[in-house]
C-alpha cells in the first residue's frame, strides 16, 4: 500500500525526489508506529492512533529526535494523504486522519539582504575572466535576477535562456524558462545584468568547461564539464559570501531578497506570486510582512505628524 501511494505521488502528483524521500521516511515511521500499537491494516486505524503518532513526532524517543512544528506538519500531511488514498482505493472504509490537523507553525519572516549586499556578493565572484568566475557570476545573477530556486537554476538547459549579445529592443527575448515544483514550468523576465553575465559565460566560459565533459545540454557546468549540482552551486554562493564578508547567506535568501526588493519597489503581490511560482498567493503574502519596516520608514519620513 505504501509503495502504491508513493508511486501515485511520483507519477500523478509529480512530487520532487527530495519531497518523495521525506514522505517515504515519514510514512515508514508511521507504519512502524501503527505496528507497535498492534495494528496491521489501515482499516484498523482510529483517529486516536493518528493523534498518538503526532504526539510521538513532537516528543521524540531514543531512536528519533523530537521534530519541530514544520517537520511534524509535513509528516502529518503525508499521513493524511496516505489515508485519503487508502479510502479512495478501497483499502479502508474510513479516513481516521481527516480531522487531525498539523501543528501550528510559528510564522517566520523570510530573511533578505540589501541591494548593496547583493551587489557586494556578485562582485565577490571576482573580476578575472576565468571560466569558473564567469560561471559563478552568471549563476548568482540568475538566482537573484529571477528568484529561481537553486534546483531550478542548476536544472536549466542552454535552450532555456536567451543567447547572443544583449541588444536594445529585444525585451521579448529577455526571459528564462524555469521548471519548478510539481513539474510546473514558468517564464520569468531576465534583467539586463543577468543577461550580460549569461552572455559572457556562454561565449567565453561554457565552451571551455564543456570541452572537459562528454556533452550535456545543462547551462551551468562544473570544472569537469558535467552539470553543476545543487551542492556545487551552494559552495559557489558560500565562497562568494565569505569573500564579501556576509554570513548566513543561502540560495533561498537570494530568492527572498528578489521578492522583498520587488515588493519594496511597488510590485503587486500577485505578480511576485507568478514570478516565484507559488501555487497560492497565501505563500507569497508572507513577504508583505517583510516590507512593513519599509512602510514605517516612508511614513516617518513623509508624514508631517509622524515624528513623536
Descriptive account of the structure:
This protein is mostly helical and 308 residues long. Helix content is 55%, strand content 3%. It has 14 helices and two strands; from the N terminus they run H-H-H-H-H-H-H-E-E-H-H-H-H-H-H-H. Strands 1-2 form a two-stranded antiparallel ribbon. Helix 1 packs antiparallel against helix 2 and helix 2 crosses helix 4. 29% of the residues are buried. The mean pLDDT is 85.
Biggest sheet descriptor = 2 strands, antiparallel
CATH homologous superfamily (4th level) name of the largest domain: Intergrase catalytic core
What is the end-to-end distance?
65 Å
Pattern of helices and strands: HHHHHHHEEHHHHHHH
Global outline: globular
User: What is the average of the pLDDT values?
Assistant: 85
What radius of gyration results from the CA coordinates? Answer: 23 Å
Structural class: mainly alpha
Unreliable stretches: none
Strand order of the largest sheet: 1-2
In CATH, the architecture of the largest domain is Orthogonal Bundle
Count of the separate structural domains: 2
CATH topology of the largest domain: hpI Integrase, Chain A
CATH level 1 class label of the largest domain? Mainly Alpha
* Share of β-strand residues: under 5%
| H/I helix tally | 14
Approximately how much helix is present in the residues?
40-55%
- Could you tell me the number of beta strands? 2
